[in-house]
Specification:
Elements (H helix, E strand, L loop, with lengths): L3 H8 L1 E4 L3 H16 L10 E2 L4 E2 L22 H8 L12 E5 L12 H10 L7 E4 L4 E4 L6 E5 L10 E4 L2 H12 L14 H14 L2 E4 L6 E4 L5 E3 L13 E6 L6 H6 L2
Antiparallel strand pairs: 1-10, 2-3, 3-4, 4-12, 5-6, 7-10, 7-12, 8-9, 8-11
Helix pairs in contact: 5-6
């Protein structure tokens, strides 16, 4: 992909080819990523009858991305984040270790039929940072990620529960939240129930934006815009992966406050 910046800002994502610096990090970090499955503190993340280990913030990396003897996170994707997104000097969050297995998603106890259907048919599409709260799962803005960096840790087929984006939906989301928060100080945004605005914007994205599946291999990476609607597809019949399943580490650092989250490019 020659012009990563234009692709990212127009479509909400971009992909980076093999990078030896990133591959070196993957090799060093992989044992630590695998070990999260055996960590009893992470048992809560094994879901959907064992077909998905969500692994939120499970990787024990430090603020530079160092884990298991790796160096700091480096390479073309990190350079892009600094140069094109204007983000540098922030602390890397503990990465999510997302591992899918054949059969994902199986029904989960207590999940409503509607939620199960949405996961199967709409890839559980969402925008990060809008957390469901209370018994009615009302949405509130609680986290202000700068971007989503996806780093495949092992080889797996393109049909093995790929990451999915609705291209250009970040513009729809920005407009919808801008209208919803108009006239309110940014410090008050988290107090607002934005469920209806969010659901309407999501429905608009489904109707107007192309759904695109992303696949990458170890040493490659992709970055998704923080406002883009995205999700994870079901595991297709016949898709192949090794014993590690479909393992991707996701970094979502929080270099912003709420105003920057909405208005930064």
């Amino acid at each position: 992909m020659r012009n990563h910046a234009s692709h990212f800002f127009e479509r909400g994502w971009c992909r980076f080819d093999y990078d030896p610096k990133l591959f070196s990090w993957v090799e060093a970090a992989l044992p630590s990523a695998r070990a999260t499955l055996d960590d009893p503190r992470q048992d809560q993340w094994l879901r959907y009858q064992g077909t998905w280990f969500a692994g939120v913030n499970a990787l024990p990396n430090d603020a530079r991305g160092v884990v298991g003897g790796s160096g700091p996170l480096r390479g073309a994707a990190v350079d892009f984040i600094a140069r094109e997104l204007g983000l540098s000097g922030f602390d890397w969050d503990a990465a999510q270790v997302s591992i899918c297995y054949p059969g994902y998603p199986q029904p989960m106890p207590g999940e409503s039929p509607g939620r199960a259907r949405f996961r199967r048919e709409r890839d559980a599409a969402h925008v990060d940072g809008l957390l469901p709260e209370g018994p009615q799962r009302r949405r509130h803005l609680r986290e202000y990620h700068g971007f989503i960096l996806g780093i495949p840790m092992v080889e797996f087929d393109a049909d093995a529960s790929p990451f999915v984006v609705w291209e250009g939906s970040q513009g729809i989301m920005r407009d919808a939240f801008g209208r919803r928060f108009e006239g309110l100080a940014a410090e008050q945004w988290g107090e607002q129930d934005i469920t209806e605005a969010y659901h309407a914007a999501r429905a608009q994205a489904f109707a107007e934006c192309e759904r695109v599946e992303l696949h990458a291999r170890p040493g490659e990476a992709f970055i998704a815009h923080r406002l883009v609607l995205h999700g994870m597809a079901p595991w297709r019949e016949g898709a192949a992966a090794g014993d590690d399943g479909r393992m991707i580490c996701y970094f979502r650092p929080d270099p912003f406050g709420p105003y920057e989250w909405l208005n930064h490019p």
